[in-house]
Amino acid sequence: MFRPPLSDPSARARSVLPQGTRPRAVRALCAAGAALAVAAAGTACSASGGGADDDVYTWWDPYPQHADGSDWERRVQECGTEAGVTIERTAYDTTALTNQALLAAQEGTPPDVILLDNPAVSTLADAGMLTTMGEFGLDTSDIDENLLAAGVVDGEAYGVPIGANTLALYYNADILDEAGVDPESITDWASLTGALEQVADEGHGGITFAGIGTEEGSFQFLPWFWGAGADLRDLDSPEAVEALELWQGWLDDGYAPNSVIDNSQNTVWEEFLTGEFAFAENGTWQVDSAEAADFPVGVIPLPGRDGGAAPTPTGGEFITAPVQSDPERYEVTTRIAECMTTPEGLVETATTFAYYIPPTQAGQEALLEEDPDLEPWVDAVRNARGRTGDGLGTGYPPISEALWGAVQGTLSGTADAEQALRDAQSEVQSEADGG
Amino acid sequence: MAPPTPRTRAGARRGAPGPRRWAAAAFAAPLIAYLAAFYAYPLYRNIDLSLHDYTPRAFIQGDPEFVGTAVLREVLTSDAFLPAVANTAVFTLVSIAVQYGLGLALAVFFRGSFPLSPVLRALFLTPWLLPMIVSASTWAWMLNSENGIVNAVLGAVGLGPVDWLTSPGWALVSVIVANIWLGIPFNLVILYSGLQNIPGELYEAAQLDGAGAWQRFVHITLPQLRPVSAVTLLLGLVYTLKVVDVIWIMTRGGPGDSSTTLAIWSYRAAFGTGRPDLSEAAAVGDLLILMALAAGLVYVYLRRREARP
Q1: Which residues in chain B are contacts of A21 at CB distance < 8 A?
Q2: Phi-psi region of B158 (alpha: psi -120 to 50; beta: other; left: phi over 0)
Q3: Which chain A residue shows the shortest CA-CA distance from B171?
């Protein structure tokens, strides 16, 4: 997921309208558009699935930013050639990919390989459309356990991460120098808020983050939530309230801009690149862009409440294999998957994506050999936590939805943190009881 | 209004021999097949989705549990329902009222020919020509709290800043403003062409009788324009009820649920999260269809009443 496809804000919008916006005239034809769109989803979107041709294997991934002829496309094709087949690659954006996968499975034409955003793996596995890695014949023993966890349902792995990313705190070294803040001194919430106060006194923006009402909002809030010691199964714990009050306090004191309520991670990064903000919460994928910024940029771990690095959520895609009517196809698919997950393959994926941290020890070492500067990120990924872990699995999406709702409500001033989180918890509860 | 001749001919055809009827059926078949495939089936499927509990698993296995109106009841009794209905009503009614008012004013304005009038009129069509993603994103930029031009202008005259998109009180207003801007061209074009069909003699006669500009507008333009206005408003209502894109791009229905309309709710349930809930989305869709249908029936009723002498 969280690798923004383009640097313009329309990218954000693009990523939410799966089939692109239809022209007005066309939309005018369907009198009850939204409703019709839902219905059409069940009927009119039969996808180009696999199963037909023995030499053509279908591959879906969530990287529309890597077009035909890109390094990534070439890399996928090479793995196909190595396995002696042609790969037909289709890219969707993250949310659309889950929907398309469900539709294709329903039509009985799933692709041979899907690269899935990790929280979606348990949803599709639970739907019964993915093979376990055991059946499929891919060895998962080398994969870091914390990274593999997102793809494990009832003790069975339904996919293998092709790489992982996570969040950290980028800072603008010029601003910190001017305000006399030593980034090394920021080790807990209090020292961070103190630093924000100092930079605000110098007339600079403090921190920007993504509080948007989507999965990205939860993704960005989790390091603070977990950093306070809160648990996703208990959204209205005092620790959770404290984390949300931290964000709210920054907004109230003007340390964070009001736009964070609506910010995607992409927008956060754009705000940071203007040079007006001292800190930005963002991910591994901005390493290259940070290097190219007009000012010196540094990275520190996101601090936990009482010091030390906060657990951050793992991001990144899993390679999964949907169930095929013809099991003979698995053999070639396994070879394709293996090609993607060798240590060299993982490093290549890592650099193609600027930057993905390999999920295996060997891969991580190989990457560090090539680029020792990535050490903080490798550490961060090793310590990161899966969102669907703690046995949450398919229970995570509704919890996350309630959580980002509470964040939105609190930051926009509809409710105080305690009330908002209590509502969120009861929403999760009633959904769990009802469903 | 319908001339009597076709009706008698139609009557004659009804008694025509078999082969001609087969031919007629054959000519109608493609249309009927088209209607069935692209209108009837999606409608049926939507209702089907809303009456079953389609979890992702059930969706793939094709074995959803039939739950009757349980999903619909859940939607109707949800805490989010009344706010969503209120948002939908405000969004729709304010949008079409202002769009219609401004569209009519502009149409009347452009009726008088003056230098550059065609050019200016063409300029007003810009919102129609731009892809929605472009115009909605542009609005979102302009209304951005920190860097938006709107707050910059307000700041220059000592006002604001206003959190247009991120405060619960303003988010709905902002998307309504953007939607009005988008809808003006549609109203302008239809009403303008309606104005062209009003005979000029009526105005001349009224002028001779000493009617002023306002009287001519109230007593000639408005009544003559009534059928066109009815169509414009009905289409406006149906289009606006189902607007997803503008709102989704600008606020995603947020912050919280403060700009969530029924259409946004439906879209979000189906496509907006990583957890497609097609049944809920379809149930909300059912409600939207009913609303559009009700508006259509009101329109038909009004037309009938008008046709009666």
Answers
A1: 131-133, 245
A2: left
A3: A412
Residue A347, pLDDT score: 86
Residues of chain A with confidence (pLDDT) below 50:
1-51, 435
Q: Could you say which residues from 269 to 288 on chain B have a Cβ atom under 8 Å away from some Cβ of chain A? A: 270-276, 278, 281-282, 284-286, 288
Q: Is B252 on the interface with A (CB under 8 A)?
A: yes
pLDDT digits (tens, 9 = 90+) for A355-385: 789 999 988 998 899 888 888 888 889 889 9
Judged by a CB distance cut-off of 8 A, whether residue B208 touches chain A is no
List Cβ<8 Å contacts ≥24 apart for B17-26: none
Residue ranges matching CATH 1.10.3720.10 in chain B: 80-307
Q: Is the peptide bond before A255 cis (omega within 30 degrees of 0)?
A: no
Please name the residue that has the structure tokens 């808020």.
A193
Fold that domain B80-307 belongs to in CATH: MetI-like fold (1.10.3720)
Give one word for A33, left, alpha or beta, with left for phi > 0 and alpha for psi -120 to 50: alpha
Given A119, A128, A213, which is nearest B254 (Cβ)? A213
Hey, what domains does chain A have and what are their CATH numbers? 49-164+315-383 (3.40.190.10), 167-312+392-434 (3.40.190.10)
Q: Do B57 and A271 touch (CB under 8 A)?
A: no
B96-155 pLDDT, tens digit each: 999 999 999 999 988 877 888 888 888 888 888 899 999 999 999 999 887 889 999 998
Nearest Cα to Cα of residue A124 among A314, A391, A323, A329: A323
Q: Judge: B59–A261 Cβ closer than 8 Å, yes or no.
A: no
Cα B10 to Cα B18: distance, rounded to the nearest angstrom: 15
Residues in chain B within 8 Å Cβ distance of A408: 254-256
ipTM score: 0.71
Instruction: Compute the 3-state secondary structure of chain B and give helix, strand, coil in percent, each to the nearest 5.
Output: 75, 0, 25
Return the SS3 of A167: strand
Return the exposure string of B131-160: e unless at least 16 CB atoms fall within 10 Å of the residue's CB, then b. Answer: ebbebbbebbebbbbbebebbeeeeeeeeb
The overall pTM is greater than 0.80: no
